[in-house]
Design a protein that fits this description.
Blueprint (H helix, E strand, L loop, with lengths): L1 H28 L13 E4 L10 H10 L3 H13 L6 E4 L4 E8 L2 E7 L10 H4 L6 H4 L3 H34 L7 H40 L5 E4 L2 H26 L4 H4 L6 H6 L41 H15 L1 H6 L1
Antiparallel strand pairs: 1-2, 1-5, 2-3, 3-4
Helix pairs in contact: 1-6, 1-8, 6-7, 7-8
Length: 342
């Protein structure tokens, strides 16, 4: 029953680990293919309703307060849109970005996806052709500050996701040894904890980073018809991976401490006595030797000699004769020369 229970628990822990890996892989390959870019993206920018003037007097006042070169930046962006250099929307993933047109509300046709590469970060100034203009060289301060943070953190975010996937795969391979020993379960539990830390750090980094980027675009460009929002499905996948990895860690921990290893079956019981230990299957004895006869561990009580019926007015000393013989032999062993001379 113990071995069957251990196998079932290892299988359940492995299922949790595999599910967490699947969620991480979904995050990693999201937005790579045009079909996936429709739902699996971390951040999206919609430029279909771009206008060069604020939509209301409040937006005009807000633009004057936040200031900078926002109006000039949007005008340069509008010129690029009229020349056909801009797409209706842009979706950003972990390794690349995709773009397409939006003919109707809620309909997004992805027409292009960039090649995935390590260290990728979405640079709107270069992508929209504003880097050669004066306003592109001096973008709004808030936007430039957020883009600098995004550029520095994007590489670490990619590394964290890769480490989470690699440690999850390694933990799954080590988990196969858990069916044979408790040590395998303990090592699998440690690797699950490491994978959980990487997954949690990657999820926090991506969520915080793109939430900051979405907030910057909303505050800076919403008055000009530029809308941005975070993806939904990909963040469900990354936080689901964190949850499943946490459950897997708890499951491996219970497997490590709640199920006995093979040593409990190999070591004979100490209460069985030396005879049972010698006759056990794991004791050593010559092949030609037979089975050790059963010997009782209990020592029989000494039987005192019966006292004589007549004492002849002397004290009864039942062990006097044995004591005298013992003293005689002891003296003979110490002084043998004396006895020889006699």
């Amino acid at each position: 029953m113990g071995q069957v229970g251990r196998f079932a628990w290892v299988l359940w822990s492995s299922v949790l680990t595999i599910s967490s890996l699947i969620c991480l892989i979904i995050v990693a390959i999201g937005c790579i293919h045009p079909k996936q870019a429709k739902d699996l993206y971390m951040f999206q920018i919609d430029l279909k309703n771009l206008t060069s003037s604020p939509n209301s007097a409040i937006d005009t006042t807000l633009e004057a307060i936040t200031g900078g070169h926002i109006n000039q930046f949007v005008q340069a962006l509008q010129e690029g849109n009229q020349s056909g250099n801009l797409q209706d929307f842009y979706t950003i993933g972990l390794w690349n970005y995709c773009a397409g047109n939006n003919p109707h509300d809620g309909v997004y046709n992805t027409t292009y996806c960039s090649k995935p590469r390590g260290g990728f970060w979405f640079d709107p100034i270069e992508l929209w052709g504003l880097n050669e203009t004066d306003i592109g060289k001096h973008p709004p301060h808030r936007l430039q500050q957020t883009l600098d943070i995004y550029q520095k953190a994007s590489l670490w975010m990619q590394i964290l996701y890769l480490l989470a996937i690699c440690t999850g795969i390694l933990q799954l391979l080590v988990g196969l040894l858990a069916c044979c020993s408790r040590l395998g379960s303990c090592i699998a539990w440690l690797l699950t904890g490491v994978s959980l830390l990487f997954t949690l750090a990657a999820s926090i980094t991506s969520t915080t980073l793109f939430a900051t980027l979405a907030g910057t675009f909303k505050v800076t460009f919403k008055a000009y018809g530029v809308y941005s929002h975070m993806g939904r499905h990909i963040y469900i996948a990354t936080w689901l991976a964190v949850t499943l990895s946490l459950f897997a860690g708890v499951s491996w921990l219970l497997n490590c401490f709640c199920f006995p290893g093979d040593r409990a079956r190999r070591v004979p019981a100490r209460t069985a006595g030396p005879v049972a230990a010698a006759n056990s299957a794991y004791s050593y004895r010559p092949v030609t030797a037979g089975k050790i006869p059963e010997v009782s561990d209990h020592v029989p009580l000494l039987i005192c000699p019966s006292p004589p019926q007549v004492h002849d007015r002397q004290d009864y000393r039942p062990y006097q004769q044995q004591r005298q013989q013992h003293q005689y032999h002891h003296h003979h062993n110490i002084y043998p020369e004396t006895h020889e001379m006699r």
